[in-house]
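Task 17 of the worksheet. Students: predict the tertiary structure of the chain below and write it out as structure tokens. Keep your answer in the requested format; marks are given for formatting as well as content.
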Amino acid sequence: MTTVVMALSAARHWTLADGTQHPTGFWAEEFVVPYTAFRDAGFEVLVATPGAVPPVVDELSLGLSGGLPSTTRRLRSQLAALEPVLASPADLHEVDPMSPDMVFYPGGHGPMEDLAVDRASGELLRQRLESARPIALLCHAPAAVLATADQQGRSPFTGRRITALSNLEERVNPFAWKASWLLQDRLEQIGVRYEKGLLPFRPHVVVDGTLYSGQNPQSSQRLAEMIITDLG
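Model answer:
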């Protein structure tokens, strides 16, 4: 059976430049859509967070920012059904980097707070990348790549093609103007070959060998379907 570890942020806020803490977590669509697609494809899915801390959903992803009311109602219902899964995650720090067929990181602003500086997660990503084991990073989740960089800013992801939420898309959020850093900028600083779609908030997926990435929440379904096709 194909196995997938979904690595979720355990953060409950994103610290902004002025020290304020913006409430956050994982983005509903970016977890629910791939999780459901993988499960329906017959994959075995394990949810993991740093320290096995139960993750929380970003409430913005269940409001106007999350889509039409019919969409957010469906997401709320699906999250409620998945509450037992989310309440008892595995510890991401104890996941064998070589064991799962896929490690999939959903986004939300949470990864900007914890996974961006989580060295254990960074080591998992490094080992999988160097062993050509599949990795998928969605929206803000490529922030986890930053934890693979050394003190000189060198990362095994340097030179690899990755997409992530663009600066333009990020700045649609008023609170993002108070951010101390933006994801696109940081990825480019460590030498990632950042790519984005022609239009913002449209599905865009980049595949570089066994490294998969999606630009935004709208890319969730396309990214999951591509992975299912390649691993199924």
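Marker's comment: The chain has a mean pLDDT of 97. The CA atoms of residues 205 and 214 lie 4 Å apart.
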